[in-house]
């Protein structure tokens, strides 16, 4: 067998000794020091059985392919790659892999092969056991019984049916999609992530509360691997008007510079919205010297910025009415061209009116798309499983906004209270939601990433919050 993935002798021996993998014989193994004319990066899904192999991938010399078939063996399953390698996965029909080539010919556009298990009920005139589709398709392994059969729904709304109860089986092969990832992408506390792309990289800023250095910054090229990049306000540069409670930062490019909009507690005790400027998304930032939005009678929090399709700048924020037993309107108002003063008339875009929202709507983020302005927001209590993300839309930046109704993202997949999201365009060109959720220990709000789709003119976050492997955004 030629050109299997890179494996150490220790790992191969361990697998051959009873871990389910078939050991290659007579391999021509690629080493990390070799310059490969053509190589394939094989990224395995989270159910891959890989004792002694810390990485979630292998790099093989040459072109390696897989037809998408997944073979069940006892309680596990395996795939057979073109080089003879047999990766095993925990559970039946659990094969998920991404194959990405380097210097193997023409570039490959991202595509998904969805291969169905043997119980799949083929549509008429569809003899193949698989479907190929451009772009990314994923599945959370759910299965719904519809006697005497069962079905599941994929991220693109396909609903394949299978003969018998609990019979759903699907394997997924991704080619040219850049590999796989798994949430969380930031495993430590990173609440209220405000994320933008500065033209070179993604920049994320997170709530810091009472920490001495306010608003930690992180950078990423792919929305998955993040690197610490300082703070918006190191302790020596914190605003003089603020006493603490540094919440909900967002950095936006306004004109030729960047503005960090943020929440902090004013010296009079009221939460207020501040602004600080910089020539780079990573600072250093200079505070305006006073709050941008301050009301002696009501806290104001959760500011976001957007341009309308005519290039007019807007600020959108929330009144903290839930802190004093009142409704929580989300306001919108035009800004000056420099983004540092409010102009025009403040409008109420929405308030908490739906049952699932309970006592609060907050954390707005506005996206212009297809003739609509979509206002993403979070509702209910950030502290527990009731927190969720909703959306409303309007044909004008200041409304009136019509709510979709039910939330598009809520507790699930092992994640509690997902919310306070940003919306960005991922490296692959798709719309991506970046948000926080409580970890299993409920000790930190970690950062998650999941793709947004747009069925029927509204956004959806299918199969999310995700816990299993997904194609890179």
TrEMBL record:
GO terms for molecular function: hydrolase activity, hydrolyzing O-glycosyl compounds. SUPFAM superfamilies: Arabinanase/levansucrase/invertase. Gene3D superfamilies: Glycosyl hydrolase domain, family 43. CDD domains: GH43_ABN-like (cd08999). The record marks 302 as: Important for catalytic activity, responsible for pKa modulation of the active site Glu and correct orientation of both the proton donor and substrate. The active site is at 192 (proton acceptor), 362 (proton donor). InterPro entries: Glyco_hydro_43 (IPR006710), Glyco_hydro_beta-prop_sf (IPR023296), Glycosyl_Hydrlase_43 (IPR051795). GO terms for biological process: carbohydrate metabolic process. Keywords: Glycosidase, Hydrolase. It holds the Pfam family Glyco_hydro_43. Belongs to the glycosyl hydrolase 43 family. PANTHER family: BETA-XYLOSIDASE, ENDO-ARABINASE. This is Glucosyl hydrolase.
